[in-house]
Task: structure prediction
Amino acid sequence: MSGVTRAAAACALPGTPLAAVSAGIDACVHCGFCLQACPTYLTLEDENDSPRGRIVLMRALVEGTLPPTDADVRTHIDRCLGCRACETACPSGVPYGQLLEGTRATLARVSPNPWIARFILFVFARRPLLWLAMMGGRVTRALRVSALLSRIPGRVGFAMAMLEATRSPVQRADYIASSDGTRGSVALLTGCVMEGLFADTNRATARTLEANGYRTQPAPGQRCCGALHAHAGDLDTARVLARANVAAFERAGAELVAVNASGCGAMMKEYGELLADDPEWHERAKQVASRVRDVTELLAAAGPQPGAPLPLAVAYDAPCHLLHAQRLSEPPLRVLGAVTGLELLPLEGSEHCCGSAGIYNLIEPETSARVLDVKLENIARSGASIVATGNPGCLMQIGAGLLRTGSRARVAHPVDLLDASYSRAALP
Amino acid sequence: MSALRSRLAAIVGDDRILTRTGELRSYEADGLPGYQKRPSLAVFPGTRDETVAVVRVLADTGTPYVARGAGTGLSGGALADDVVLLGLHRLKRIISIDRDNARAVVEPGVVNSRLTAETRRFGLHYAPDPSSQTACTIGGNVAENAGGPHCLKYGVTLNHVLALTVILPDGTVVTLGSPNGEQEGYDLLGAFIGSEGCFGVVLDATVRLTRDPAAIRTLLADFSSVDAAAQAVSAIIASGIVAAALEMMDANTIQAVEASIYAAGYPTDAAAILLIELDGPAAGLEDDVARVIQFCRSAGARDVRVASDPADRARLWQGRKKAFGAMGRISPHLVVQDAVVPRTKLPAVLATIQRIATEHRVNVCNVFHAGDGNLHPNIGYNADDPDEAARVHVAMTEMMQACIDAGGSITGEHGIGLDKLQYMDRLFTAPTLEAMCALRAVFDPDRRSNPGKVIPIHSCSEWRAAPSVRAAAVR
Ligand SMILES: Cc1cc2nc3c(=O)[nH]c(=O)nc-3n(C[C@H](O)[C@H](O)[C@H](O)COP(=O)(O)OP(=O)(O)OC[C@H]3O[C@@H](n4cnc5c(N)ncnc54)[C@H](O)[C@@H]3O)c2cc1C
Ligand code: SF4
Ligand code: SF4
Result:
């Protein structure tokens, strides 16, 4: 017993997506620094639901000491939010996001994802179906069905509340922002849910960029970014979508790509890794990825211009894919800082996931709800009337939670607040 | 086992007991994953009452068990070899904070840094600051008598615990020490702190909180040789200045940190750096700073800079505290040692360690509490390479022997656990080990609490004479 030796083990799952990323497992030194960063560990209190524990399970799969059919492995990997808070806590640089995607893709080969997950992924990968779904959502919202049903218990009620939460809480008049284009040309990823349910925010994104010296232009032919698919282990579909987007943004030709949904931005910034094994596309993907920016990065680089006073008590909640995946903490605060009169209140645990996590809230509703409860308590304590966060999933999850608990606070994208402030400044 | 399982499940609920291989896997190692032992069962009580009830069932059935906090220990202390693992991480309530008397009562699963986070608004903090403080628990700190960079001036865990409520292995709940700090009779509290889970389970701890110093200055000194840095340490200590912390990192460590997410802006071409903190009333502090800078320069420092603001200071410290983890970048596996040598021997021992490393062709990184001579040589290696693993083992053993020969000890703060058992015979005589066995017998006569740790089995005559207990313990 020396404690320094171990039996050399060959990879038990050769040729799988997990084998492809398994070097990352060896970077874990088992120090435990990630435990307190992990929302599922904090709520479920079992190390199997922690990053360190999940990495142990992944290692067991690679070494063949646990089979990919092991039900416990599946449970604990399924319960991961994919929020990647463990990455920003890890001194050893474990690429947890990659490990998770590789593991999920490997497990999905053995036993498929739940039907609801497969259904959603199917819809997001097909333009006509996606259009229909978003249309249905908008009609439901316009007819106030979502408002009516948002408080009924169960999954349907929660889904209705999510839809209802997409209604923008800030009023603004349309204004024309004129740009001198000195900061360069920007193509927008309009996104699926963003264009479908947050069209106002997309318009606000274009206007605020223009007002800060960018020239915006469309990028026709773009698709869903593929993040939902990649996170659920459907890497093949994610790659199909990524290739379509690489081509679309090459065609658009703009210097930069602006994304206002942090989950999509994180995915697009990683297109190079996603297509690493595709000789024809790898370089092109890396090139496009290098041009991708979160909208708040672009605005922060330009100042941004201050707007007219908007006296609101706002708390900022960091989307995981902005803070932990893209590692951006300052830019959204700079955007909020440009809204004069806005009071920024501290929000405890703003670095923790809200439990939305793509489609996690639909497939792991119980854990998701427990994670959300913590967030809602912190929001209540902050005293904010608006929670600003830059990702559609988070906006809908937190917004739904607020509606269903009878809170009077509402959610808004930081860009919406800046836009409202500009729109007031433009008023005669 | 299934009878025991159902009795425990009746207390904590079915989902708080793990028995399947897949689920126990995560509990097979602590912060030193070179050792792995599988528990027979893991149980996670959620309240103090549940914990008491669980320990009583274990007593009733004569079942051996091992307490576990966050599993960040670096000596394999929380490993359960086919016995029950008792996880205390769910007991994470801060029971009370007494601002006026600067003390707090906490459950054992409270994470060290959370206590400071919760008391900061009163201008107080919990002084023992192990580098693992964002992960490790107060219960684990008490069991290991944990130290940290700032323990040089403020003292280790032992100096900050006023009282403990403990459940002994036979199920009796006792209070050791007194919240008012006065001790009557023998210092049982002192005996318990550092007992590595062998004397019982901590149910709550009354700890001392420390007032935040009025002023703090953090210095980063950059040296082109380890020896020069060691000379600076000696000079500072000889001057009588009591630094709050005095830490050294060598070139390998600096490079690992600078490549990590916790990059602190350390000079990557330095052979060694010292991180020195001075604190206290503002008056006189600048004089001390000037003198320390002078000592560093005389010893040959290339540069000494003072942290510009609290953010800069925090960054310098983050790098130090995450250094061990950052070494994971260099190589897939890591062993860490923990030895204390007389401070005057530091330069010589460091040179010997380097010589041993070169001789056995292993890559050693040194990051340690220079101020109290607490060395942490870390060796990164690839465990899948049997030849390299064998060389690492020999090098480690020789390094520990070098520390013992220099008049040092084999643990400063990580404890003996499993990992250092092999060195106990070298450091202590048979009668001393027998005396330790006798002390243990006072708390845990059946040796059911953390069996097989700290004292090598063969050194306990009574133990040898009681094969039935041993069989139960190692079953
Ligand atoms: C990166 C890194 C840096 C570190 N730096 C330092 C440092 O600077 N200083 C230092 O001293 N240590 C350090 N350590 C070691 C470790 O963090 C400490 O030993 C810590 O005190 C262990 O706490 P834990 O909660 O993780 O305990 P565990 O590892 O879970 O257990 C450690 C021991 O405590 C016992 N135990 C746990 N809870 C209880 C309880 N409630 N009652 C009775 N016994 C109990 C266990 O049985 C075991 O023997 C470091 C570790 C890592 C990984
Ligand atoms: S912080 Fe990183 S190295 Fe440490 S246990 Fe977590 S994943 Fe592993
Ligand atoms: S991604 Fe989030 S939920 Fe998953 S292990 Fe990391 S911190 Fe935990």
The longest strand of chain A covers residues 185-189.
